[in-house]
Amino acid sequence: MTAANHRLDLDTGFLGALLDGPHADKRHRGREVAEHADAHLPDDLTLDQKREATKDALHHVVDSGMTQLPLPVDAGGKNDHAGYVSGFEELVASSPSLQIKAGVQFGLFGGAIQHLGNAEQQAKWLLPALKGELLGSFAMTEIGHGSDVASLGTTALYDPADDSFVLHTPFRAATKEYIGNAACHAQAAVVFAKLIVDGVDHGVHVLFVPVRDEDGAPMPGVSFEDDGYKGGLPGVDNGRIAFDHVRVPRTNLLDRYGAVDADGVYSSPIESPGRRFFTMLSTLVQGRVSLDGAATVAEKLALDIAIRYGLERRQFSGAGDAETVLLDYGRHQRRLMPRLARAYADAFAHEKLLESFQAVFSGADDSEAAQQRLETEAAGFKAMTTWNALDTIQVCREACGGAGFMAENRLVGLHADLDVFATFEGDNTVLLQLVGKRLLGDYSEELRHIDFGGAARLIGSQAAEYSLYRSGLANVGRTIGDLFTPALNASRIRSGKMQEALLASRVESMVAQVAQDLRPAAKADPATAAALFNDNQHALIEAAQAYVELLKWQALNEAMHAVDAKAHPSEAKVLRRIRDLFGLSLIEEHIGWHIMFGRLSMARARQIGPAIDRLCRKLRDNAAELVGAFGYGPAQRRSAIAEGAEAERQEEAAEYLRRERAKADAPVDEKVLHRRRKAEAKAAKGAQKS
Amino acid sequence: MTAANHRLDLDTGFLGALLDGPHADKRHRGREVAEHADAHLPDDLTLDQKREATKDALHHVVDSGMTQLPLPVDAGGKNDHAGYVSGFEELVASSPSLQIKAGVQFGLFGGAIQHLGNAEQQAKWLLPALKGELLGSFAMTEIGHGSDVASLGTTALYDPADDSFVLHTPFRAATKEYIGNAACHAQAAVVFAKLIVDGVDHGVHVLFVPVRDEDGAPMPGVSFEDDGYKGGLPGVDNGRIAFDHVRVPRTNLLDRYGAVDADGVYSSPIESPGRRFFTMLSTLVQGRVSLDGAATVAEKLALDIAIRYGLERRQFSGAGDAETVLLDYGRHQRRLMPRLARAYADAFAHEKLLESFQAVFSGADDSEAAQQRLETEAAGFKAMTTWNALDTIQVCREACGGAGFMAENRLVGLHADLDVFATFEGDNTVLLQLVGKRLLGDYSEELRHIDFGGAARLIGSQAAEYSLYRSGLANVGRTIGDLFTPALNASRIRSGKMQEALLASRVESMVAQVAQDLRPAAKADPATAAALFNDNQHALIEAAQAYVELLKWQALNEAMHAVDAKAHPSEAKVLRRIRDLFGLSLIEEHIGWHIMFGRLSMARARQIGPAIDRLCRKLRDNAAELVGAFGYGPAQRRSAIAEGAEAERQEEAAEYLRRERAKADAPVDEKVLHRRRKAEAKAAKGAQKS
């Protein structure tokens, strides 16, 4: 079953440096945390022990020096947001529970104080938070409302009588829910509540609220419930928080975008309540950026494990005597190689996202256009990467058979822990609708201003001046006609221009189609407009997915072109294979569309599948180096099947069988006996005849 | 956002009886087990406690009277195999751990004694096993080999000196692995080992081996390891078993298909060792049949939960004031309704499978043709249904947002427990390859006899005389031409004949294509033939999937046609919607293929998506009744979000908001204030002017 060998001589270190990107040093620091065994959460710990171990492991994150990277230089930081997030997302290798707990503590709780608090508030609470001395919750989501933050029910009523806010949970659905650190560890919380001052509801603002006293008892009026067992992330103590007329001083309002002065007068630097709300929420983008990266880390780990095992595990004897290595099976290659290519795309695309993130958060370019592009890309990337990671982990787990189901081989734990990534920090479906809505708004000024109601309304008010659509797509789409020459041979099917044109023209057409279908909404009443939007919701989300796929492909393509092909011919070549496999896989996934809309002739479409098969076979021969470039070692993988045990066992078995066969009295296979007897009978018959 | 209502007045009981099939009474008995709380495995139990609770709950299964149903009538049974399996698979609602533990104990351990043992052996061990008094393991899989049973390494050497077998694990990879009941509870095991008698290796046979003494200590020479934590099924104590020259009496060989007499002479009623091996393994089909059913139960439970929640949960305000019910969103319908249709197809197809199973196992029709058809269908159904169940559970969990991730809402547990279904009792990929190989063999006599090596060899030796392909497909495929009239309108796109023709012709063409590609193998050496087969492995598996999809569609179609449309017009109509949604979804999934191979014109293909949207909307209006027909109650669902808590909370919140708004001093929204001020300014300006 061995065909031609397509192995290229690869410099794994070179590829690894490309993947790790400009913040490689921070990534390495993040990976080193995995070397501390105390954060690994062995399965036989109780839930409480896992929570304590995770809390205690926070100090490794603090010790790594990462948590203060995003502080301004004059506050002792480096204004390094991308480096911070890079290091952070690598904590997945230590344990996703630690990554998320650290995300709650430093990113969300600390981040809210940094981005929404004033200097005085930062002086009091920020450093203790970033040092892990003041543990906190980010109390936004309620039982009744998650992704729809504007509809939160918790109220913060200003009481001029004693210059304080009265925080209150007026009904059960307004109870804060799924709040990390709430069940056990939070001493304080940043609480999202409707701010009511002097009879006016100013919408959602954030307050700093002490929730437990020094002995860990709930502060008066604060009550907790434990979310208990979840599908994963056992080290994170999620819980519910309710407030019964809890008073906090006026100065506990994080007041960068909305303040109440000593006279009880509300003011804000942003006049429009809608813009103010979205500005406050914009700091949430950091969570989405880091989930995009964390999901990428998780899929790399899973592929690393499954491919190492697939290169050792043998099953079913081949044409000769030796059993066949799993990764030599055509189907096994088809399951894993396109996912490997996609992991490369996710990694390079994530580095681009980090670039935008750093520009906006460092202040290098925090124009509204840059902010909105960041938000759109973070939303789309987070949604697509987290789903992809879940699928990839599941395929990897199945590719390892029964061994994949054993907790000690890590894959089931990664799936369980990553599961919630699809619905937290913005439900993936809602996030993709946001991306779709932006595409629509860019496509048509008219559509930007229609009130579609429902979820669409939330997004409508965020419309921006820049154009994703026109800048990114139209010029690419235009070139597609040129590529439709009838004589496309097998190698031309791998043309990068062709791939980009197909991917881009799909986005273009899908958005145009939805826009056309929505046009009547301009003259309709709101209910009809909303119904029309709803009829197109599925199509709009598909368009958003197509757009994100295009961006990921472009990032991979760019990374490939950035390699000096003269200095690094093999690496450039393997990246081209990866890009082509990713691009063609995307095209194959939607091949019906490409044919239906006349982008691919049927004859050409039939070449896609075989081209993918060839690329899978070629990449298989460098599979070891390609996962090696991810830069993980046994401390990060911690999967018994990925470290050579299987090969060792096979060697032992083979050695035993060799010895047995060499023995004079080795048993004869009954089948051989049957064949022998038949031959003897035949010979005897022949002898009789002659 | 409310469109026309398509609600039909449905008789849920009537639909439920259809779904539950001819063994409804056994299903109800199985569901009742879920009412015993002691098998529910609350998350806060330790692993040991979960294992003990599951073991203890076995008695509910025994008490239900189910375990003896498959015994012959003269042994006190009912020869009722389908009823037995029907009741059994419903144990998933109690806990998948119990279902699997019971499957190991009664189905595999008991089943091996019943099907492979002689009368004396059955008299000694069978009833104690079926009463749960003698707990046992089914020790087939080894670390080194799972799906490839023929390559097992454990040996059973006959020693004439003391008329016993010496059971031995000659190397680490031959250790029995993932064995249910092994870690704690098994007193005995049916052990698969290569039988060596008088210098001849007769291939894999099964022996009854006591593994623990009355105090639970390992028998001399037997050693155990605990598999510990897995991705799910915590109540099943999986472990490893190794044998160090363990002696068992000659009479412990389960000798229906291979015996050793008192003189140490081996004999078998089946001369060919290959056929003998597959005959012994054929009893394994029961496991696959019941996993097909258990996976169907799991997907029904998940849909029941997610759809009930989706009908209550509201999120994002609609065009008016009230928030929109999740299931009114177009995308939400697109996520859940096609899966609901597929669950119906899985349920009806499973009943057909049970029919074949009953015919073969009861002896009503145990012809080789019937046996092989059963094996092929069980393999294909098990693979496709278990994958589908996993996907459906995941989609359901995400459709419930954060609540879906909470253990108390059941969905994450179902996913974790069902995960291993994809790779045990035959890896899904290997099973589908078996189906594909059968299709090939039926297509071409020539291909049936080529030795492709590898996994294909295993299957090749099972070739049968009957024809799946010719009987099931060709006549359907032939009608497709007639359907290609240019004037297909929107309603014709729902034509059942059209759906069947498209699904069938796809199978036909895919099989023909692979067969053509493999033709050169007939004249090639084994290595080249194997390589050629491997190049086509992916395509062959896709063809097998298409075949299973066709069978499932046909089962659903048949069930629909069996309803008397005059007596039950609404039920017949809703089943037609379900069939059409399932059929069109399958066609949409592979729309590229249908266009590429000229089966669908582009114009017609573009009608599929909108037709699916319309069907989703229509079925949404009967969603409550359609999951109601599954027949589960709170005791089976046990999901906090599925029992009305959400609606209650919303009512409380709405009531609060009503009261607040009625107050004279209710806070004014700042946005309203802005609008008011603008209006006043405008009015003032107007007043100045006039």
TrEMBL record, chains A, B:
It is found in: Peroxisome. This is acyl-CoA oxidase. Residues 652-672 have a biased composition (Basic and acidic residues). Residues 503-640 form the Acyl-CoA oxidase C-terminal domain. Residues 652-690 are annotated as: Disordered. One of its GO terms (biological process) is lipid homeostasis. Its cofactor is FAD. Its main location: other. Residues 282-440 form the Acyl-CoA oxidase C-alpha1 domain. It is an enzyme of class 1 (oxidoreductase). Belongs to the acyl-CoA oxidase family. Transmembrane segments: none annotated. Residues 137-246 form the Acyl-CoA oxidase/dehydrogenase middle domain. It comes from the Bacteria. It comes from Brevibacterium rongguiense. Residues 32-133 form the Acyl-CoA dehydrogenase/oxidase N-terminal domain. InterPro entries: ACOX_C_alpha1 (IPR055060), Acyl-CoA_Oxase/DH_mid-dom (IPR006091), Acyl-CoA_Oxase/DH_mid-dom_sf (IPR046373), Acyl-CoA_oxidase (IPR012258), Acyl-CoA_oxidase_C (IPR002655), AcylCo_DH-like_C (IPR036250), AcylCoA_DH/ox_N (IPR013786), AcylCoA_DH/ox_N_sf (IPR037069). Its EC number is 1.3.3.6. One of its GO terms (molecular function) is fatty acid binding. Keywords: FAD, Fatty acid metabolism, Flavoprotein, Lipid metabolism, Oxidoreductase, Peroxisome. It holds the Pfam family ACOX.
